[in-house]
Amino acid sequence: QKEVEQNSGPLSVPEGAIASLNCTYSDRGSQSFFWYRQYSGKSPELIMFIYSNGDKEDGRFTAQLNKASQYVSLLIRDSQPSDSATYLCAVNAAAGNKLTFGGGTRVLVKP
Amino acid sequence: DAEITQSPRHKITETGRQVTLACHQTWNHNNMFWYRQDLGHGLRLIHYSYGVQDTNKGEVSDGYSVSRSNTEDLPLTLESAASSQTSVYFCASSDASGTDTQYFGPGTRLTVL
Prior knowledge:
heterodimer; A: 111 residues; mainly beta; 6-stranded mixed β-sheet; 5-stranded antiparallel β-sheet; B: 113 residues; 7-stranded mixed β-sheet; 4-stranded antiparallel β-sheet; 11 strands; globular
């Protein structure tokens, strides 16, 4: 079983709709959770991080964390064609500063 | 502005050759990481360092080595390149006293023929 799992997609959403991405993790002691966006041929760039259960909003992005169920999600509101990318979920293990990445979810926003 | 750079951006080499990929950061971060990214596998950790003279193996370290002689640089060496090491390599760094957020370099695309 992979430590961090994501649906590989592609997740196809119409422009203006909400894109919902999910990520599950196996290490119950994980402390911090990150969402990165990666455009084709580019390096990952941080969208946001979350530490506490509940929701965290940043512009059109909302991260949701549920430690009891071991999942973290990302909502993209008012999706734009420029949001078309692969979204990587990353989890910090209980010890150390290493991140474990999921395989990523490819999102396609259609005009 | 602080940044993290990698060189070369593209490299073609032959099986059996030694190859070194450079990573340089001006964030003054203690933590540095090397990943490889392949279709179907996502980002996999090769080696990492928490400071000068500190190096640690990641999940796919066989055939790779790193050394950390200063804060800014963590070069990755492929001792004897193999076709299975054809990949995109990313370097990242993070602040030991910060949020664990890792910032990535632009990547190096390595082809081993």
